[in-house]
Each structure stands twice: as C-alpha cells, then as structure tokens.
TrEMBL record:
Keywords: ATP-binding, Cell membrane, Membrane, Nucleotide-binding, Transport. Its EC number is 7.4.2.9. One of its GO terms (cellular component) is plasma membrane. Signal peptide: none annotated. Belongs to the ABC transporter superfamily. This is ABC-type dipeptide transporter. Pfam families: ABC_tran, oligo_HPY.
Amino acid sequence: MPLLEVSNLEVCFGLRSGAVKALRDVSFTLERGERLGVVGESGAGKSVLGFSILNLLSRPGHISAGSVRFEGKDLATLAPEELRSIRGNRISMIFQDPMMTLNPVLTIGVQMVECLKAHRKISTKDATYIALQKLKQVQMPSPETRLEQYPHELSGGMRQRIVIAIGLLLDPDIIIADEPTTALDVTIQAEIMDLMLNLCEQNNVALILITHDLGVVSQVSQRMLVMYAGRIIEQGPTKEIINDAQHPYTQGLMNALPQMAIPGQKLNQIKGTMPPLQRIPKGCSFNPRCEYVLEVCKHNLPAFTQSGNCQVACHLVAELNQEKLLVKEV
C-alpha cells in the first residue's frame, strides 16, 4: 500500500457565477521516502493540490469528489480531531512565505515549543531541547540565540530554515513544500534545497515539492507531475521527463528555461496564458496555446496514454504511439 494515494481528486470553488473546478481528476501515489515534484505555471492548481491533501481548503473551496488516503485513511472524511493528529504531526507543510507562517509577536522558541506541546505530552524543558536539536539539524548558526529571537530579527534564509525545522519537529512521514525558496536569492535557494534533500534522505521522509522551477525539480525529485489548468497532463520519472518531455506543454516549459535560449536572443516562451477557471477550453485545455493542435484536441478530453515509463494526456502522443505499434506489426 502506498504511503499516500490521491484518487480522482476534484476540488470546486463555489462562486456567484457558479461552481468552478480548480482540480480535475487528479490521481497519483507517493511511497515512503519518495521525492515527488509538482510543476506548472501559476494557476495550474499546484498549491490547491497541496492544501487539498491536508484538507486545508477554506470555503468556498471544498473537495467535491475523489479521495486522499494516508496509510489507507481518507483524510477528506476524517473527524477534525483525528485529522489534527495527522496534520502537522504525520504530514507537515512548508508554506511559500515564512513571514506568513511564523507569528511575529512570539519568539522562535515559544512557537516551536507550542507546536510540540500541541501534539505530544511533553515538558517545556524537553520540548526546548528538541527544538534546539532541530535547529542544529537544519544548520542554523547560533541556535541557542535564535530561540530567543523574533522572526523579524532574522534573515529570509534563517526564517526558511526555522520553518523547515518546525516541519521536522514531530518527525513527519511526509513534507509538502510549497515554493519553499521563492523569496530567497539564488545562492540561499541552493543551500535550502540541498538541506531539504539531505534531511529527507537521512530521515526517510517523503517530499512533495511544489514549484515552477524545473531546474530545482530535476535536482531534487525522483518523480514529477506536470499540471495544467487543474489537471495532471504528464507524470513519470523526473529524468525521463526532463530528457524527453512528451506533452507539448512540458516541452514548452523545458524550452522556456534560460539555458535553452541562444545568448543575445529573446528567451523562448509559450504563447498565450493559463485559462481562467471559469473559461477552461473544451477538449484539451492546452489546445488554444498548442502548436501541434489537432481537430480532436478541440472537442475531446485526452485520456492518459503510456509513453515509456511516463503517462501523458495528449491526443498527438496517443496517435504517434498507435502509428509505432502499426509499424511494428507490419
């Protein structure tokens, strides 16, 4: 049994103009200790997926179909008390902005101790000792001093290390990291990602890394999901997708990387923009932006087709695979 199994997940947001689907038929699994990357443009549904796993959606957002099973338990149907024993304890989330995560009027030590005491029967002395050890684990300089400081007294990189340390406090089985390095400079980004990678490997913690940075995903994750307009359009081993992307959207993301451009010329980009949830195109949602669009793409939603070790939701890939089979039979 997988550690986490998401099956046919659908998330809706009720608006005055009617309900819109932010996630559509999302399915994947996560094994213990596995590192999974989730990539796509802004508005693809990456963060909604992260919040949905922990059932942290605020109204009018809600899970309208499908299931999120952790060790066989459907998190979407658990009672609040039972969900609380898993959220933050067995599954931790590292949010995009540490200043939004940390309480500005409490010291780092108080916040870490409160987190431990909320989930465990433990003395303040023992909780402080564990907090100190976790700060050392994330290579925080002068950890004893940091426990007495407030978030605003620390640099962005330090705050992010503290958020990671809080995520590790209760020895979780899964960490969901939502754009954990967005607000940091490139050098600190590399340090934080190396730190997270080492911590996950040492503690056999599964990681779901949500990001728009394909470079980070290629270095950290073993498997990846590519999302577009609330749906997974390609998934498989990271190296295979990076080296031979099948879906035109994934190819566009790869070509848009700065290192793919010719020096002195404009960067490559995918034409058009992500469609709003109220106006998702019929058929393949990427069809208005796709340079390989077929007539069937405008009317029929593509099913997943196997391509190597990857699954791709694309009519063109399905047709090419069918042609290859016919050639082999001849």
